[in-house]
Amino acid sequence: MNAAEDDGFAAFVAARATSLLRVAYLSCGDEGEAEDLLQTALERAYRNWDRVRYDNPEPYVRRIIVNAAINRARRRAILRMIPMHTPPEPSARETDVDLRHVLMETLRALPPRQRAVVVLRYWEDLSETQTAEVLGCSTGTVKSQASKALAKLRAAIGGESAEGVIRNVHA
Amino acid sequence: MSTLEDELHRLMGEETARLRAAPDLVDRVVRSTRRRHRTKRIGFTALVAAAAFAAAAVPAYLVLGPDSVAVPEPAVSGPAPASETSRPEATDEAAPEPPAIDDTIPAPSPTRDLGDLGDGKAFKSLRVGYLPKRLQWSHWSLDFGDKYTTSWNYDGDSNGFYCVQIYVHEGQAVQEVDERVQGYRDEGEGAEVAVGDRTGYLVRQGVGEDGGDGTPTLVLSVGEGRRVEVMFSPDYAKDLGGAEAVDRELKKIGENLTAAD
């Protein structure tokens, strides 16, 4: 890699690494693994920088992160049965911190692809089409995965009155 | 967006607000990559300096990136001092000297191209004996010395997208591509293939860990000191109509590569 390419890579990392780290964390639910995912993805980007840099490299790196997180979660699931997180009792959520805890725990407990859809759609604000591109699936799959994920998240924070719970938290 | 989705976004923002990328991340990535293929230390100091320099470019990058997504916090709070970017314990390489305050970043040397290649089928040491129909030389090439590349597409436009791209790796660059292939091997991606009397590795590079298209690639050993990397763009691979056709065409290109000298 020549100096100009190095400069471009360093500029990219300086600008986007924290944002990508957050995507990685939300995708895998673990801070240490998120750092590893990010570094691994950036190493791939660095190795291929002479090609990647001609496009916007952020979607490329994000795609590696999200798909690697899904892959790792699936590999772990094959190796051992992960005990499913049990959502806390819905009545105990009186503070914003509780609500965040419940939602994050439920997010972690989602199947990897559903979690990725939530992160890409509702954190990264990608469209259904963009999310489908990242995940290499159809927009129909994105819609159905998002719907299932939201149903679980709603259930975790109080069943059919989820929006009411959220409003009460802020009341 | 409904209330639940809004709330999800807000809560994910709160949950991740404390996270910051390590200030020495560029250093780590570069070290980890270079540790593997042991390239020269030249340019590293410039990169560390560039990391500091790059912080000034953050707002521009955030604005310019066409798909950049707004984040609730600034990306990185500021450049890491050079002393913070050195992690001598993390590697068996000598720690790079921090740049002196009056160091100037060397001007990048211009990357050369391979000149007018005619139909593009012979470049430097390689002759391409077969290409799928309808492809023309793109009039684009790059020459990094120990690796060089050119491509072919439908319209011969140097600004167009590539359909087929071939890299030739020689000398130091061979180690990099070998290690990259080994990485795929270790991850269970791709497969060894025999292409004529040569050995090769077929893999979808870059992405595709969860069904993404990736870049269909054949890395072929053409002697101890030379590797040829034949790549199809994901879009072109779709045009070929399926994995079997893609692999067949990649191998056919590989079978018909000969020395140009």
Itemize the secondary structure elements and their pairings:
The complex is a heterodimer of chains A (171) and B (261).
Chain A lengths: L2 H26 L2 H17 L1 H4 L4 H23 L16 H14 L2 H12 L4 H8 L3 H18 L5 H9 L1
Chain B lengths: L2 H14 L8 H13 L6 H12 L2 H7 L17 H4 L36 E2 L2 E3 L7 E8 L3 E7 L10 E7 L1 H15 L4 E5 L2 E8 L9 E7 L4 E7 L1 H7 L2 H13 L1 E3 L2
Antiparallel strand pairs in B: 1-2, 2-10, 3-4, 4-5, 5-9, 6-7, 7-8, 8-9
Features:
heterodimer; A: 171 residues; mainly alpha; Arc Repressor Mutant, subunit A; 9 helices; 77% helix; elongated; B: 261 residues; 2 domains; seven-stranded antiparallel beta sheet; three-stranded antiparallel beta sheet; 8 helices; 10 strands; 22% strand
Description:
The complex is a heterodimer of chains A (171) and B (261). Chain A is mainly alpha-helical and 171 residues long. Chain A has two domains: 1-82, Rna Polymerase Sigma Factor, Chain: A (Orthogonal Bundle), CATH 1.10.1740; 87-171, Orthogonal Bundle (Arc Repressor Mutant, subunit A), CATH 1.10.10.10. Helices cover 77% and strands 0% of the residues of chain A. Chain A has helices spanning 3-28, 31-47, 49-52, 57-79, 96-109, 112-123, 128-135, 139-156, 162-170. Chain A is elongated and about 55 Å long. Residues 79-94 of chain A have low confidence and may be disordered. The longest helix of chain B is centred in the C-terminal third of the chain and has 15 residues, at 172-186. Chain B is an alpha+beta fold and 261 residues long. A seven-stranded antiparallel β-sheet of chain B has the order 3-4-5-9-8-7-6, sandwiched between helices. Chain B is globular, with a radius of gyration of 22 Å. Chain B folds into two domains: 3-90, no CATH class; 122-259, Protein Transport Mog1p, Chain A (3-Layer(aba) Sandwich), CATH 3.40.1000. In chain B, a hairpin with a 2-residue loop joins β1 and β2 (126-128). Chain B has helices at 3-16, 25-37, 44-55, 58-64, 82-85, 172-186, 234-240, 243-255; strands at residues 122-123, 126-128, 136-143, 147-153, 164-170, 191-195, 198-205, 215-221, 226-232, 257-259. The chains are: A mainly alpha (171), B alpha+beta (261).
